[in-house]
Amino acid sequence: MNTLIAALWQSHKVTVLTPAPPTTGRSQSRDYRAQAADCQQVANRWPDDLLKRQYEELARQWLVLADHAEGR
Predict the structure, then answer these.
(1) Distances (CA, A) of 9 to 23, 27, 28, 67
(2) pLDDT digit string (tens) for 12-22?
(3) Segment 30-61, tens digit of pLDDT
(4) What span, in angstroms and rounded, lies between the C-alpha atoms of 70 and 57?
(5) Where are the alpha helices (DSSP H) in 2-71?
(6) What confidence score (pLDDT) does residue 3 get?
(7) 4 pLDDT higher than 80
(8) CB atoms within 10 A of CB 29
(9) Domain ranges across the chain
(10) 14 by DSSP, 3-state: which?
(11) Cβ distance 5 to 39 under 8 Å?
């Protein structure tokens, strides 16, 4: 899947690097929120289509994980 995403970004001249999230600590929540922000930035660069909606959904899911990591 990462290869497909990389190919799509290269064809649209968008670069996204997503490091693996950490496994412990408060920084986990910050990293999840950073992932959400990255996904939202990618979504904002796409025209209104399926990929845009999918990245917006990914951003929402990262935020849910961040809330969960914070014990909310």
Answers:
(1) 28, 28, 26, 29
(2) 555 555 555 55
(3) 999 999 999 999 999 988 899 999 999 999 99
(4) 20
(5) 2-11, 27-45, 50-69
(6) 52
(7) no
(8) 20
(9) 19-69
(10) coil
(11) no
Position 1 scores a pLDDT of 42
What is the spatial distance between Cα 31 and Cα 34, in angstroms, rounded to a whole number? 5
**Which residue type, as a one-letter code, is found at position 61?**
Q
The DSSP symbol for 49 reads S
User: Which DSSP category does 22 fall into?
Assistant: P
Residue 42 identity: V
Q: How many CB atoms lie within 10 A of CB 52?
A: 15
What are the tokens at 9? Answer: 């970004």
